[in-house]
Amino acid sequence: MEGSLFESLVRNSMTLITDIDKSESMVVHEGDMFANAETSEEPTFKLDLNDKDVIYDELEDLMGYARLKLVKMMYLDANSFGDEGVALLAKTRALKKLHTLSLADNKLTDAAVAALAESPHLTCLRVLYLHHNNIGTAAMEALGHSDTLSGLTTLYLKATSLGPEGAAALAASPKLRGLKELYLDRTSIGNEGVQALCESEVLDTVEKLTLPHNGLTDSAIDMLAETEHLPNLVTLDLYKNRFTEGYAQKLKKAPKLTSFKFLQVD
């Protein structure tokens, strides 16, 4: 990869993540920031290779890139490496401190999620984007029983093939106990899937839950209002479902939703 056009693309796609408050009066030299980042033991860069038509051979080069260990957030949406590429990524030791991974719109199947779930290196992963892929029940079973992925706080599954069975598999997870944001838009989970989730400890820590375009009816509202597993829910998105007009407003007065503030509905 050294000296190649792809290396140039990768280098130009890496940006430094900084928490510096621009309102502070202190002057920070950009060169010093990058020099410190390069020698830091903690990853401090974001790598954005979305929609770059990255193929398997190029991903293989990337996984051997010396600076990969400096990457904290990696975005690989809409590329061409498939399940095989994800399996390679999952075996890459240099990603042992990766915090955020986005693999949206890569034509992935359940096998890709299984590879992530079995990875010995991705134990620091906290944010996982898998939207717009062909993943379903088997993927949720693998993810839900994974020690590696048990620390996830954000899981984005929009426009996947979960269905009620996939939602039930996710709900049955004995490992996911720290989720704060769960995105299930356009997953066809229906009322049956909502019921499974409402009976699950997976929701105990969730603060944001999105369920647009799932064919839900008023009974889903009742389940959400009555569950014991959403004490931390702050934001709920129910856009484009099949509720009786005004019925979802009962959620605002549900006594068990003690943290609830924001409702999005038609």
TrEMBL record:
InterPro entries: Leu-rich_rpt, LRR_dom_sf, RanGap. It comes from the Bacteria. One of its GO terms (cellular component) is cytosol. One of its GO terms (molecular function) is GTPase activator activity. GO terms for biological process: nucleocytoplasmic transport. Transmembrane segments: none annotated. Pfam families: LRR_6. This is Uncharacterized protein. It comes from Nitrospina gracilis (strain 3/211).
